[in-house]
Amino acid sequence: MSESTAPSGVTPGARPVNPLLADEPGARRLLLGNEAIVRGALEAGVNLVACYPGTPSSEVPDTFRRIGGGGRYRLEYSVNEKVAMEVGAGSALAGAMTLVTMKHVGVNVAADPLLTMTYTGLPGGLVLLSADDPGCHASQNEQDNRTYARFAGMPCFEPATAQEAKDMTRDALLLARELEQPVLLRTTTRVNHLRGAVEFGPLGQPAPIVPFERNPRRFVPVPAVARVRHAELVRHLGVAREKAEHSPWNTVRGDGRFGVIASGISRAYLSDALHETGWGGRVKVLDLGMTWPLPEELLTDFLSECDAVLVLEELEPLLENDVRALVQRRGLPVAVSGKGGALTIYGEYSTQSVTQALADLLGETARLPMACDPETALPVRPPNLCPGCSHRALYYAVRKVFGDDAVYSSDIGCYTLGLLPPLRMADFLFCMGSSVSAGSGFATASGKPTLAFIGDSTFFHSGITGLVNAVFNKHDLIVVVLDNGTTAMTGHQPNPGVIQDVLGNACVHLDIEAVVRGCGVADVVKVRPFNVKSTMKALAEMKERSGVRVIIAEEPCVLYARRTLKKPRNQVAYVAEQSPSVADCLEHLACPAFFRDDTGIHVDENLCGGCMVCLQVADTIKARKRSDA
Amino acid sequence: MSNAARIRIYLTGVGGQGTLTATTLLARTALDQGLEVTSGEIHGMAQRGGVVESTILLGGWMSPKIGHGEADLILGFEPLETLRGMTHLAAGGSVLSNTEPLPPVGVSTGREAYPDMARIRAKVEGCAAHSWFLPCRTLGLQAGSVQAGNSVLLGAACATGLLPFGPDALEAAIRTHLAPKLMDMNLRAVELGVRAVTSAS
User: Mean per-residue pLDDT for A379-386?
Assistant: First the structure.
């Protein structure tokens, strides 16, 4: 839905140039935070973008893809974040100004090259966008990737508005090129997915390519080189610290002996809280936008003028601990507070939690708004597999054949939603690609029949390695590759499994079956999940065998088939006659196109995806032509 | 830039309804009127039929988030989600809601019961200073499509006088920002929403 919305409401093609590519300094447009990042990168002159999609980062590469760019930059959907990071590093070594985008957990995958490229430096300039997700809106954890700025040794920018998202992206890329060091642009879901007015700067030309000069004593970090480069990294961070001291993103405002040091989206909550309470005149604020390396002189001056300071930062108390250390080192007589009470290490902050913390600092009572009582026992509305989703069909067949005897190792994608009843097709999950390898370990230790479910994009991301391992170490499990032909969960981005016609000239399709066989798997079967009987037959046969077995369940994502492949399903299902089999179908298939009213169970024609799986489950459900087809 | 009215609008609906598109249209309307706008959305997995919440904050708010008791106006694109979202309403706030349900899967399968409209109305009227209920799906279809029901609700909101601009501003934004083929249908939808509010008062 959001991915199909053109910036500024312009239908692609309706104007000759997308507004994001227009050179109109001073223009003000309403942009999504992620669109603002794209504009900032364009203003800096970005030459290459590499990514792996993941909420809340996905609209950045998807916007680069949608606007085309007219040759200003190259965009690559890499197969995983480590690869994106390495492609980006190579590109920046070759002198291109480079942006690499991913969600927070993706940085764990990319951490290996990241922690060494800060040693070598990258002459073209590289910015890593890490889109963190406090509150776990769409993630398996809420790790704080500001840690990576400290861990890897990267200057870090943290925008809080759409305007800042644009401007800091530009400044981060320019700094990365100036220092020849990777820079972290760290956002959170609220920033990626907010919209605000953005005033454009000049577009300029793509950055010139910095010629590569061979220098193995810098770029080949054998131990003798690495030792020297580590010292160089520390020196670079010293230069970056000087930049932070004078950065226009680090500013002091207000008066009084009470100080607040705020970073990231907490700055927005602070700003609104001060406005709402009217306490703005009693508080001195240090806004940190360039948050690493810490501007220690600026902080010392600020702390020296305060009796007490409050540190506002979501997730880990990184800034707070650094401030405490600085206070101790410099012997400053100031009381520091931060985490505690309403300011938790988990979840998001809010204007109300910041108001509460301000009240504690100032010795005031927070007047929090009155709200009407929450309604209890409302029907829940969890995200669900779509009507016509092939994963539902496959899961239905697996449950019929294996029931509760088997253990289900899940992975990351739409198909994780199969965890819900009645399908209950997820017993455990860690991260991208873990289904195969964690499934292998579980099967070995438990001796239970184990099925690993993995999508096509996730298979290419990091399932192949686990599969090679399973063959090599003679594990005993069934891997089901849920091949719906696209990266469905994050908005239909390309992956190597996508058909050639959709990929166009830029990418090459890879055949999953050939890859699986190439990994050494001999027992491979392809099924069409919408054919329930043959799918169940293939599953039942595999159940009797042992070793590494792979089922490739091939059926396009229903949304992708309709929108991209332009395959309308003109047939819909309808309940010809109420019968126990219809009730049974609703109970065990649980397709959201079904509904119940006073007259019985029916299929909503508007919702029906036309998969016709229900016809194979209930004998009194029939097919007919869609009324508007 | 006018900072005269600081208004927080909380919008809630169901993935696939098009509520984020509607949110963006209303936010653009406000920006075109020279207002300070911050807007936010939370979706992620919600595009698969889950709850979709979005926000529009006018008049100089920096945070895109609306907490409990903070919304001056709630726009509910689905009645159950209106009810669920009521905790966000500020004292003295108002509500506009669609009356036509999209049953969640638990209701479709008969495991859970959808709250009846009388209960939803009672709760809303008990909490809100003003409230309006519209059959958005029906009116949207009358204008040309189910999705146009979202513009019905936006048109109605602009006609209440609670926003710092009227339906004319929304109509202008539709002409500026929507694809030509969608324009007439959405203008008809706005008109239906405006009529529903003005005939009710």
Answer: 88
The CA–CA distances, whole Å, from B89 to A310, A369, A484, B8, B38 equal 30, 10, 41, 10, 18
Express each pLDDT in A158-198 by its tens digit.
Answer: 999 999 999 999 999 999 999 999 999 999 999 999 999 99
Q: Look up the domain containing A339 and give its range.
A: 250-362
| Residues A192-237: tens digit of each pLDDT | 999 999 999 999 899 999 999 999 999 999 999 999 999 999 999 9
What angle is formed at CA B46 by the lines to CA A101 and CA A409, rounded to 5 degrees? 75
Instruction: Give the separation between CA A161 and CA A135, rounded to whole angstroms.
Output: 19
The pLDDT tens digits of the residues spanning A310-364 come to 999 999 999 999 999 999 999 999 999 999 999 999 999 999 999 999 999 999 9
ipTM: 0.95
* Contact yes or no for A370 and B42 at CB 8 A: no
CA closest to B179 among chain A residues: A11
Q: Are A148 and A212 found together in one domain? A: yes
Quick one: pLDDT at residue B48? Answer: 65
- Give the pair of three-digit tokens for residue A346: 């988990």
Neighbours of A22 (CB within 10 A): 15
Closest CB from B21, B81, B88 relative to A1: B21
**A494, part of any domain:** yes
Average pLDDT, chain A: 94
Q: Are strands A450-455 and A477-483 parallel, antiparallel or unpaired?
A: parallel
Q: Is the peptide bond before A202 cis (omega within 30 degrees of 0)?
A: no
pLDDT at A563 over 90: no
Q: Do A254 and A241 reside in the same domain of the chain?
A: no
Task: Note the Cα A46 to chain centre separation in Å.
Answer: 21
Query: Looking at residue B4, what is its pLDDT?
Result: 57
Q: For residue range A229-242, what is the model confidence (pLDDT) as tens digits?
A: 999 999 999 999 99
* In a domain? residue A153: yes
For chain A, the distance separating the N- and C-terminal CA atoms, rounded to the nearest angstrom, is 23
Q: Kindly report the CATH number assigned to the domain that includes residue A500.
A: 3.40.50.970
Token pair of B125, please?
A: 């009227």
**Best B20, B57, B105, B120 residue to mutate vs chain A (most A CBs within 10 Å):** B105
Handedness of CA A452, A456, A462, A464 (dihedral sign): positive
CB contact at 8 A, A127 and A243: no
Task: Point out the residue among B21, B42, B87 whose CB comes nearest to the CB of A5.
Answer: B21
| CATH of the domain spanning B7-200, picked from 3.40.50.720, 3.30.1360.30, 2.40.37.20, 3.40.920.10 | 3.40.920.10
Q: Please tell me whether residues A49 and A193 are part of one structural domain.
A: yes
A56 neighbourhood in chain B, CB within 8 Å: 44
Beta bridge partners of A283: A258
B123/A372 Cβ within 8 A: yes
3-state SS assignment for residue A69: coil
Q: Please state the domain extents for chain B.
A: 7-200
Tell me which chain A residues have a C-beta less than 8 angstroms from the C-beta of B100.
Answer: none
Q: Which residues contact A232 (CB under 8 A, 6 or more apart)?
A: A119, A121
Task: Check B38 against A375: CB less than 8 A apart.
Answer: no
pLDDT at A1 over 60: no
pLDDT 10s digits, A285-304? 999 999 999 999 999 999 99
